[in-house]
Amino acid sequence: MELAVFGATGDTGRELTAQAGNRGHDIRALTRSPASFSTGSAITIIQGNVLDPEAVSATVEGVDAVCCLLGRTQNNPDDIVSRGTAHIVTAMERHCVERLVVLTSMGLGGSMCTVPWYVRLANATVLADLMADKARQEEQVMQSELDWTIVRPGGLTDEPSTGEYVHGVDVDVNAGPIPRADVAEFLLWVLENEQYVHEAPSLTTERDIDIPFLWDQATGVVQRLAGR
């Protein structure tokens, strides 16, 4: 499969591209800073910004599927996620690429009740702008004619892959910690097996939420607010 990846230089994006290459997929990654990205034989780097429709179009043209892992980044507007996704959707429709998998977060849409109270508080206050941008992103994707899947993970960690995660549209779970490596594995499984088309599954674990995890999540909030 030839896969276009947006957000490939982020922590989860790097994990996704590494796993995709190991599984025999070819990757086209759009990035503003090619020098910061570890290249490989399976990766084609396209220099540019997701806010540039022509750069997005060049990345999408000729691929089999698109994976969008956009997040708030430094030196970009606060609505980078929704604006960039709008360009991706337009480019996919233009080039007749139908399959799109998007990574957002638990706490959006029907998964709002699955996140702890302190996450709901943060989402409604310090992260309100970011979550509103992601909500617009989800709406754009759902209103498109594409074969989309929106994946909403729990709290992301840098731990090694465990393979022990739960997923589903109506699962009764909380937003527990989940390694980015497991998230990347799940995204590829969804793509490879045409799972959850026109659905928005939650992806999490049944692990307990401990103090180190809470600290990491709080640090992540600070970094996102700083636009990193």
How are the SSEs ordered, and which strands pair?
Elements: E1 2-6, H1 11-22, E2 26-31, E3 43-47, H2 53-60, E4 65-68, H3 80-95, E5 99-103, H4 117-124, H5 128-142, E6 147-153, E7 155-157, E8 166-168, E9 177-179, H6 180-193, E10 202-204, H7 211-225
Parallel strand pairs: 1-2, 1-4, 2-3, 4-5, 5-6, 6-10, 7-9
Antiparallel strand pairs: 8-10
Helix pairs in contact: 1-6, 2-3, 3-5
Write a brief structural summary.
This protein has 228 residues and is of the alpha/beta class. The protein is built from seven helices and ten strands.
Mean pLDDT score = 85
Strand order of the largest sheet: 3-2-1-4-5-6-10-8
Helix content: 25-40%
Strand runs, count: 10
How far apart are the termini? 31 Å
How much of the sequence lies in strands comes to 15-25%
Instruction: List segments where confidence is low: pLDDT < 50 over at least 5 consecutive residues.
Output: none
Largest sheet: 8 strands, mixed
Label this structure with key terms.
alpha/beta, 7 helices, single chain, eight-stranded mixed β-sheet, 10 strands, two-stranded parallel ribbon, globular, 228 residues
Please tell me about this protein's structure.
- With 228 residues, the protein is of the alpha/beta class.
- The protein has seven helices and ten strands.
- The strands form two sheets. Strands 3-2-1-4-5-6-10-8 form an eight-stranded mixed β-sheet, with helices on both faces. Strands 7-9 form a two-stranded parallel ribbon.
- It is globular and about 45 Å long.
- The mean pLDDT is 85.
